[in-house]
Amino acid sequence: MRVPGPNGYSHAEASTGQERVITGNRQTSWAFADAYVAEDDALRWARDRAGEAGLRPVSPAAGAALRLLAATVDAKAVAEIGTGTGVSGIHLLHGMRPDGVLTTVDPEPEHQQFARQAFRAAGFASNRSRFIPGRALEVLPRLADAGYDLVFCDGDRHEFPDYLAESLRLLRPGGLVVFEGVFAHGRTVDSGPQPAEVVRLRELLRTVRESSGLVPSLLPVGDGLLCAVKR
Fold first, then answer.
1. Which of 100, 133, 141, 152 has the fewest CB atoms within 10 Å, i.e. the most exposed one?
2. Which of 154, 130, 145, 6 is nearest to 66 (CA)?
3. Predicted TM-score (pTM) above 0.90
C-alpha cells in the first residue's frame, strides 16, 4: 500500500524528489563556486597542458581556496608536493606575499618545465619559485625545519600519511597543511571494499582529526581539501 506524502506523493517518491533537488542545487552551487574567481590566460594554458599530459589539476574553486589560505597565513614560504603543470602553484603564488617563494617538488621534470612557463606567463619573476625534481619523500627531508608557512600536498595519495609527518616538521607554529583529493571521487565515504589509496586517505583523515596538535577542517571544494593548522 502506498502511503501518500504531504503533496499526494508517496514518502519514497517525495524523498526521491527531494534528493534530486538537493543534488541539483549542490551541482549548481559547485559550478557557481568554480566560476566565482575567474582564471586568467596563464591558468587556462596550464590547465590545457595538464589535460594533454593526463593530469588532474585542482578545480578552479579549490585553486581559489588555496589562494585564500595562502593569503590568510600571509605566506612567505610555501612547499608544494606535486607541481603538475603549475595550476595550483599559480593560485598559491597569487595568495602569497609579494616577496614569497614557492618551493615545488615533482618527480616529472617535463611537467615542471610547463609550470615554469605558466608562472612566467602569469607575471611571476623566476626568483618567486624553486623547482626541485624528485620523489617527495626523498626531497622533503632536505627542507628546513619550521621553515614554511604552508605545505600543499597533491602527490601520491598512498604517501599522504607520510607527507603529514614531514609537513608538521616543515611548518612553523600557526602554519597550515593542505591535502587535495581526499574525497577520492566519493570513494572515501563509500562503505564497500576500497583500494589501498582510499584506505590510506581514511587513515590520514582519522589522524588529522584526532591530533591534539592540529586544528582541522574539511572543505568540500574540488575533490576535497583537508586543511589543518599546526598549533
1. 141
2. 154
3. no
CB 112 within 8 A of CB 139: no
pLDDT over threshold 50, residue 1: no
Cα 141 to Cα 109, 144, 167, 169, 204, distances in angstroms = 20, 8, 10, 9, 20
Assigned C-alpha cell, 53: 599530459
Per-residue pLDDT tens over the stretch 77-96: 999 999 999 999 999 999 99
pLDDT of residue 33: 84
Write b or e for each residue in 190-211: b if 16 or more Cβ atoms lie within 10 A of its Cβ, otherwise e: eeeeeeebbebbeebbebbeee
Cα gap 196→214, rounded to integer Å: 25
What is the spatial distance between Cα 108 and Cα 133, in angstroms, rounded to a whole number?
7
Residue 13 reports pLDDT greater than 50:
no
Cα–Cα separations (whole angstroms), residue 35 to 60, 63, 136, 197: 7, 11, 32, 30
Question: Could you tell me the three cell numbers for 183?
Answer: 574525497
The C-alpha cell at 36 is: 566565482
Using CA of residue 74, residue 79, residue 80, residue 83, what is the dihedral sign? Answer: positive
Who's near 161: CB < 8 A, 6+ residues apart? 200, 203, 204, 207
Helical residues (DSSP H) of the chain, grouped into ranges: 11-36, 41-52, 60-72, 87-95, 109-121, 136-139, 160-170, 196-210
